[in-house]
Structures are given as structure tokens and as C-alpha cells.
Write the C-alpha cells for this entry.
Amino acid sequence: MKAADILASLDEAHRAVAAGNLVDLSGLENAVERFCTDAATTEPAERQAAAAELEAVRKALDRLAGEIEASKTSGQAEAQNRNQAAKAYKPRKP
């Protein structure tokens, strides 16, 4: 798999997270592993370009990880707020 394909998948995942949707990352680990393996065997003349592609993939992965973590934190806070609101309207025992 090429860096452009991985970056396109990560961009799609980014849009899904931003929209509050679940993200399917199945196959991503294998794709990144194949990409890294291929990059390790790159011809010397192409290594600088391969290194730049690896860095772009790393940054995109880090960005997505941060967005997923922020989304989980936001979702947990939202659930806590809903629970507190529900408790406020819950009938009290005499």
C-alpha cells in the first residue's frame, strides 16, 4: 500500500471522528506495516522521499489518535451530564 492510500484512509477516519461516527480501522495496522517494510528496502536514491512519506503517515496517525481520544473524553463527559440530568428528575423516595 502506498502512503497516499494510507493518508486517504486516515483522512476518511478523521472526517468520521469529526462527525461523531464510529471509525473502522480494520486493516490499517497491516497496511502501515507493509508500507514500513517496503520503505525499509527503498533504494538509496529514494530514501529521502520515503522518509518524508513515513513522517506524513506518522503525523496523520498521531493526529487521528488525538482526535479519537478527545472524542472519547467528550463522549464520556456528555454521558456524565446526561446521567446527572436524569438523576435530577428522578423521583425521590419519601
